[in-house]
Task: structure prediction
Amino acid sequence: MNPNIAQKLARPAIIALKPYSSAREEFTGNEGIFMDANESPYNKPWNRYPDPFQQNLRQRIAEMKGVRKDNIILGNGSDETIDMLFRTFCEPGQDKVLSIIPTYGMYKVSADINGVGYETVLLNDDFSLPVDAILEKADERTKMLFLCSPNNPTGNRFADEDMKRVLENFPGLVVVDEAYVDFSTGGSWVKALDKYPNLVVLQTLSKAWGLAAIRLGMAFASEAIISLMMKVKPPYNVNTLSQQKALKALVEPEATLRRVAEINNERERLRTEMASLPFVKEVLPSDSNFFLLRVDDADALYNSLTTKGVIVRNRSREPLCEGCLRISVGTPAQNNYLLDCLRNINSEEERPAASWNALADWLVYPGRTAIRERKTKETEIRIELNLEGNGKADINTGLGFYDHMLEQIARHSGCDLTIQVNGDLEVDEHHTLEDTAIALGEAFNEALGNKMGIERYGFALPMDDCAAMVLLDFGGRPELVWKAKFKREKIGELPTEMFEHFFKSFAIGARANLYIKAKGKNEHHKIEAIFKALARAIRMAIKREEGADFLPSTKGML
Result:
């Protein structure tokens, strides 16, 4: 394979192009009075243009993928990186590209927009790659081949041996779209960039990472290909908010890995249970977060599911997909409802009541669970919170008395709470207490979601010889008023001076207003009463009025 293939295939105009030079290319520092980009000096930090080369984000992606930063270009979704490839390598009205059918429709749309010929080869009957037909159809005008693997809508990943044959023999660039690779056990072709100078790999944060809203697409290729694409890229194509959100997600990948595992398990559960339905002809295997379901009458089933509130994709008019619906895997509750609809497809009941009722609350009030992971130099924390739980607690911070106090929050609020902490207890307790409080507050803030219909306020509670009053407001303005004094230096392993700090950190993380007052003779009972009172206040504040779709605020916002 010609190592200079990028220069050979690129448009002469792009090779000669002097790209636009932004102010941040001429001066790359972070400090100074910036008067070079005609930006407003007001409304920091949003007055500044985003990093045009997304340096920090590309570096993090490079570390995760095991490539160099110069092997990466980012786009406003993968659609932009696809368009960059056309504008870099295809002469309008002269060159052409090749792809397969059925596959993702945006390749053809981009070809049509750029005035580039678009040719296709039909997949084999088993959806495998027709390598001989692809190589036979390519000629000197064929600049690129687009292969989506795992493929959309068929869901299958193409065999490695077939892909190698294509990469070794195709005369142009081979663009492997791996939008669904995170759901596949087959691995990514990113690791083969050094071996194949004609390879381009596309990935996205839209699918497995659950970040479709931020529109972040990634292209991986040789430095020669990326440098040419950089000439074509708009100077500020990925906004600051998208860069920040992506960086935050990539720093904490564990939650995504768990969600991918759950989606894959749910996918196989759906496939197994659907296979026994009388109108199902075939449930096709999949390496993605969707699968094809071949049925007797795809149009009728699609319409029936739509009337029951389930929207799937009718792919029955695609070649080789006759009679097929494409179904994306949902949450366990969503999948249960789908299965109920399919089992009762001929029922006159508009919606199966039991599974719909379990699902309806989630539809109206999203965000009642949260997973928070916080990593610092001193602590590593994972918190799982379910506001609709039964008071179950699984807590291990390394501090027995702290665990006992946190368990009170779960048991007396009715929330399910899992907390696992690895902290620098060999130094002292400070970081474990503080970071756990912050993460716990953030978990409550996330789980409350849009706060529609919640009571918002809470208060409580006497205990034995002690009286503890906790007033709580989840209104969004963090504040703590602390009126509790302790005579002992420690209770259990916990320094009493840290109690106020715990509730302050929790209030900041939860964006909550806390007023805490306590007095009594027994110091143990006093702090336990405060934690229980907080839990009861939480129980009251997170309660929702059935059917309420309003914010508990005269301002109309929280």
Q: What stands out?
A: The first strand starts at residue 72 and ends at 76. The two ends are 60 Å apart (CA to CA). The first helix runs from residue 5 to 9.
